[in-house]
Amino acid sequence: MFYITQDGQIYSGDCQNGDRQLTADEVTLVRSGKYAIIDLRVVDPSEQVGYTQTQRINEINDSIEQTQAELDKWDLKTIRALREGGNMEDGTPYLDYYQSEINALRARMSDLNNEKAQLEQELQELLSQDEG
Q1: In a 3-state reduction of DSSP, which class is residue 95?
Q2: Whole-prediction pTM value?
Q3: Torsional class of 18: left (φ above 0), alpha (ψ -120 to 50), beta (otherwise)
Q4: Which domain holds residue 29?
Q5: Same domain, residue pair 78 and 30
Q6: How far is Cα 95 from Cα 97, in angstroms, rounded to an integer?
């Protein structure tokens, strides 16, 4: 048997302090590992307002971190190219090549930040509609 405490903790075993026993649907969600606790109820988070926006914002945050790490790597290569110079096999200076890669990553970062801002605005609007 699964129970939920007054502070939203879930445990299995015997009832303690009059905690509420979970319904069969709630138990299924707990066993799947994909649940949220709202107002001391176990619910499917994908049915909550703003779930898809929140998931996408989390994905964007991960992409931003990865893109920033790539930018840092290219920046280090650019510093080396400034010090040492040199050309690639096709004659393109390393510095020009590195800068084109950096520009592409910066454009990607800008697109990600714009999408994130738009999703955050949508999420805020959804949440304010849900409250009203």
Answers
A1: helix
A2: 0.69
A3: left
A4: 2-47
A5: no
A6: 5
Return the closest-CA partner of residue 14 out of 6, 24, 27, 2: 2
Let me know: does 119 contact 112? Beta carbons within 8 Å: no
Residue environment code for 53-70, b if the CB has 16+ CB neighbours within 10 A, otherwise e: bbeebeebeebeeebeeb
Q: Are residues 64 and 118 in the same domain?
A: yes
Say how far apart CA 54 and CA 63 lie, in whole Å: 14
Given a contact cutoff of 8 angstroms between Cβ atoms, the answer to whether 60 and 116 are in contact is yes
Residues 68 and 122 in one domain: yes
Mean pLDDT by groups of 10 residues along the chain of 132 residues: 87 87 90 84 85 93 97 93 89 93 97 96 88 66
